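lol ok so funny story. i was supposed to be doing the assay writeup but got distracted and ended up predicting the structure for this chain instead. priorities right. anyway since i did it might as well share w the group, maybe its usefull for someone
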Amino acid sequence: MRVTGIMAVVLVIQGVCWAQSDEVARLTILAEKQAAEIEELKERLARIENLLGQQTPPTVQPATYSTRSSETQVQEAPSQVAIQSSALAGIRFSGEFRMRFESTTRGASPSSAGLQTDRGRYRLQLNADKNVTSKLNFRMQLASGAVNNGIAFFQDFAGGVTHQPFFVSEAYVDFHPTPRFSVRAGRMEEVFTDNSRFLWDDDIRFNGINERWKIGHVEFRAGQYPLINPDVFTVSVTSPLTLAGLQPGSVARASQLFHQGAVIDLPSRGRWQQHFTTDIQLYRNPNLLALTSTATGVNATVGPAIGLTTSGPAPGSGNAVRVPGTAILFAQRYQIIRAVYRLDATGLGGNDRMPMTWMVQTARNIGASQLQDALLTTFSIGRTAQTGDMRGLYTYTIKDANSLISQLTDDEIGTGLGVNIATHHFRFDYTLHPNVLLSNYLWVQNERRSSNPAASFFVPLGRETPRTWRFATQIGVSF
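and the output, tada:
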């Protein structure tokens, strides 16, 4: 009996062990299967991350303006803090929104009407960037603004409750077979853009091609831009093109810009960096650009290109003309040479929150015999990187009536004109948040020369025009 009991206990224990062995084997198989699934999920996650193409944010730079040749590259955006862009299928999205109130006043004179404008405005930009290959990038930008105004993305708070326009501002490809050479083609910023409000308005974009080639501390740049193409083989007697000086029966040649030069990064000394730029702009048939600012000429120059009839001429008149009401520029040619010197300090007294920039630019239109010079000097101190940061800026500008193309230069330093001005510009920025900036601007503008009928010299506003005051306060959000 005792033996029988012992045998029964042994059989029970052996059965339990067999059951546990089967359970262990089953759990082992399940664990191996789950491990394989985890490895497969890791591989899928890695492929998804590679597809999204996430990139680290660019380095924050303290300077206010840049020649875009050196390692320092900053645009006048609501904040200088780089923000991680969202990405979808390798496309990186970013943008900015600015909301502004501004007031412009000018007294009346016997030869000019007074001016008083109080308005709310906004500006919206959406950007999309894609690395197509390791050597080819694509960029697109959509922006607000009136269709007949190529030097402003701001849209007035006007028009009732009608929908506001939104257009293609940038669309280009950037091919860079080597780190030192690149070619861009499409619609883009001009190759020498520095956001200093001297040559170009910071909202202007050009169609065409530009190239950059860097050798050591020197970067050579060139740009070729078609501007106006009348597409008219024979000019008729009644054609608006005659207002630009084209003779009836002649061929209407296109207007173009060829811009080439070099940017030199001079040796740095500790926290101090120096840059020098020299370039020349060669315009072909610049009268056609002036024609866009006349009521009858705009439909012959702008309308055919965009497929729309605009509500009025393009802004930016100011250059001297030979006959009132025409686009026959007083200067026979526009061949503009320019020199720029820029000094940057990453932090005064070792304080990284107090970077400094001083820049001076001079330009001369060697295609004109008088009133051919332009000058800008600007001083900036402070930054807008972190909450509580502040920045102050002062700029003084002179742009004579035959110095630069009025339709392309800044529309805030030159309120309503562009050239034939002397302007003081004050700016103060306060950082509410790394991507939220409060900015205040003040422009004080005087006209420089009056019309002289005896010399066939006519300008829209003369020296007798009262001083123009313009103030703006703005909140900008980047995302």
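The CA atoms of residues 240 and 297 lie 5 Å apart. The chain has one domain: 53-478.
back to the writeup now i swear
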